[in-house]
Amino acid sequence: MNASGKEVTIIMIEDDEGHARLIEKNVRRAGVNNEIVPFTNGTAALDYILGPDRSGDVSQGRYLLILLDLNLPDMSGIDILEKVKSNQHTKRLPVVILTTTDDEREIQRCYDLGANVYITKPVEYDSFANAIRQLGLFFSVMQIP
Questions:
Q1: pTM of this prediction?
Q2: Which CATH architecture has domain 2-141?
């Protein structure tokens, strides 16, 4: 997964260690060898993605793929999704929602806010691998403004 020779970094925001390990294993089994940077809470993840000032400047020119759990200890994944998708520097970054809920209203809300893929945990390996590969395609066509 790379765009014009730039490596994509996978940001995994997941507070359940067991799930995090499972997700990482699935990503690796899908043949994706990109670096995975794990976060267990939204605040730390947003510090990394948008910077402590939340300006998003730190992510200019970065290729990130965000795997986002909706149920986090300090804030909801929907809040994170909203912040990432409303920032000019990060709004084009693909976001994969990982969650245990299959509430259709919540799913719709994620898509409305700009989520690219929505995966219900526990992750079924084939659909997950497929989603990750599809996201690889995002990067090959992703235009950096």
A1: 0.83
A2: 3-Layer(aba) Sandwich (3.40)
